Amino acid sequence: MRRIFKWQLTAIMAALLWAGIASEAQAQKKLWGMLKHNDSIMTARYRSSDIDTMYITRPKTKWTFIGRLNVSGAKVEVEGVQQGNPFHSEMTADYKSTLSLGVSYLGLSLNMALNPAKLMGKYKDFEINLNSYSNRWGFDFIYQNAKNFKGWHEMGEEPRIELPPEVLTLKTLNVNAYYAFNYRRFSYPAAFTQSYIQRHSAGSFLLAFSGQGQRADTKATYESVLKVTNIGIGAGYGYNWVPARNWLLHISALPTFIVYSHTSLRVNEERIPLKYHFPEVIITSRGAIVKQFGNMFVGTSMVFNFTNIGNEEQLAVHNIKWRTRLFVGFRL
Q: Which backbone phi and psi does 164 adopt, to 5 degrees?
């Protein structure tokens, strides 16, 4: 009896073990089937873009890996007349350099950036750069909180005064967006994110929107606070030139005229009225060069923002913000 019971117990345990293995295999098979189904849906959506494939195409691969070196800078120029004396100031921020790695699967991207100078305590400013480019529309979002500006100030016949760091604290938000009319043949992503490939040259007229918010606090022999809010609309043009196989050169310009402006200036305890002076503009320019080697690619790109507000006979402020990028990547 004991032997029979022992065999029955062994059989039951073996049956349970086999059932567990079969159940686990079935669950894995079901999960793999769901993943394949979702992948096929994502692939179909990725390939079904509304484009003219004679001019632009999707890469044949699903994975894209990119390494980038990003360098950005900012500059502020102020000029005007105070108590009958012309003045001119120029302040430049330290360059910001970051290294980033990105991976994209069927258009879904994940990026990680590292600022070596900030890790070593040499760069204390704060900056965020967000961008999204598609064939039809796209935007750049840039926020900077900087105290490392240094430069000089001149007034009338007085000698130039050197301005050390932390005299100026600048908080700036820049937003610009575009809409491309010829999005079926002209591709911004081909130049900036490499999620498309431009096969033949094409250009497009662009609608543009720009917004800027800024606060500048100056503490020198005087104290001042300048607050600026601008909204602009306009139009521009972009062109992708394919001079030879696997080459792409991009250039675009999007000037916008400021249609809403609110500016206030306080120097010490005195408030100085500032009036809108036409034309006040925000200009966004972009450029890129891309070279492909099979499934590998290298290139460089740049985004340049320029803002001009005010009147030199009273007070004019010129803001320059730029970012350049070197990148190398491959597709799988």
A: -80, 170
Measured at the alpha carbon of residue 52, what is the angle toward residues 48 and 58, in degrees to the nearest 5? 50
Pick the closest to residue 75 from 305, 258, 300 (CA basis): 305
CA proximity to 305, closest of 81, 131, 135, 152: 131
Report the sign of the C-alpha dihedral through residues 192, 247, 180, 176, in that order: positive
Distances (CA, A) of 133 to 94, 112, 142, 255, 310: 28, 18, 14, 18, 32
Of 235, 316, 226, the residue nearest 276 (C-alpha)? 316
Q: Are 65 and 329 in contact (CB under 8 A)?
A: yes
- pLDDT per residue as tens, the chain (332 positions): 555 555 555 656 666 566 566 566 666 666 666 666 566 676 677 777 789 999 999 998 889 999 999 999 999 898 888 777 888 889 898 888 899 999 998 878 888 877 777 767 777 778 888 888 999 999 999 898 888 888 888 888 888 888 888 788 889 999 999 999 999 999 999 999 999 999 999 999 999 999 999 998 888 777 888 888 999 999 999 999 999 999 999 999 999 999 998 888 887 777 776 777 778 899 999 999 999 998 999 999 999 999 988 887 788 889 999 999 999 999 99
Query: How far is CA 213 from each of CA 177, 265, 270, rounded to the nearest angstrom?
Result: 15, 14, 22
